[in-house]
Amino acid sequence: MQPTDRLDDDQRWRIALAKDRRFDGVFVTGVHSTGIYCRPSCPARAPKRENVRFYATPEDAEAAGLRACKRCAPDQLSREEGAVKDALALLQRSEQPVPLARLAALTGYSPTHFQRVFKRAVGLSPAAYSRALREERAKGALAGAEKVTDAIYDAGYEAPSRFYAAMEGRLGMAASDWTNGGAGRTIHYAIVDTTLAPMLVAATEKGVCCLSFDEGEAELRARFPKAELVEGGEEFRELFERVVAAVEQPGTGQDIPLDVKGTVFQQRCWQALREIPPGETRSYGEQAAAIGNPKASRAVGGANGANHIAVLIPCHRVIAHDGGLGGYAYGTDIKAELLRREEQA
Questions:
Q1: One domain for residues 239 and 305
Q2: Under a CB-based contact definition with an 8 Å cutoff, are residues 45 and 76 in contact?
Q3: What is the pLDDT of residues 62-120, one digit of tens each?
Q4: In b/e form, how buried is each residue of 268-297, taking b as 16+ CB within 10 angstroms?
Q5: Which pLDDT band holds residue 3 (cuts at 50, 70, 90)?
Q6: N or C of the chain: less Cβ packing under 10 Å?
Q7: Cβ distance 28 to 313 under 8 Å?
Q8: Residues with active-site annotation
Q9: Domain span holding position 36
């Protein structure tokens, strides 16, 4: 499927038949036999195709003489967008979590309904979004703080213990490592031969932190300029062998531990990549829709480009909207071969 700004009518029709709510707000479905227009996710019985036209906005549909469906209320989309925008503004300027009841009162919706509206638009609940904001503030503060504790309080956490509990297993590197670019951490690495190309694999004690092709120590040092780089010893042999096996048989190795760092948005994109089944592909627009933000295809492309763990975080499964391979950091020949092997498997 193409990115959402290039959908054709056949694709919109398939989306409407699937009642895919991820595309609510991207277009509306006009049914000229009844004179109404609907969201793509409208639960009403599907109309006949010859009676359907698609419009970019409710205003366009109304200009064509259609009225809003009372069941799915597509004309409320602009109101919902405004409500979400107001809630986001409040969450972004608040240093402490904002109760759902307060957000609902601000927007004029019931708490339950607003929770659904917000999650559909943002991809996270208000509480999860608020936690993500505090994590982002903490990472930004840690980057320039002299004391980790000061940065944690500045980010809005009531105590350091709250921050460490929230970060456990999510940032990869410990909180103090964010203040000095990873200084004091040890990264073990090896350059191994594969049937695709020479491969650089690197790992901390927590898991793989880099996997790339046709790169060496210089490129690894550029990514981790203040870490201690050590050639992988016997204690990392088994892990590196598992990584090589996963590269030779792409689609395996899902249980290999990873140690990655990225923004909350990047982590959502990377997780969406790992959820694409081996042998299948997605467009950037489809990946954006999968994380709940179908208009963010360009941002998704940027997040995919920031992925430093090839194959295990399979950005090779994202292709161009026209079905072509698109780009790949390590060359389209490697990308094509990875996809071929997954399809055969």
A1: yes
A2: no
A3: 999 999 998 888 887 667 777 888 888 888 787 777 889 898 888 788 888 888 888 76
A4: bbbebbeebebeebbbbbbbbbbbbbbebb
A5: very low
A6: C
A7: no
A8: 38, 315
A9: 4-72
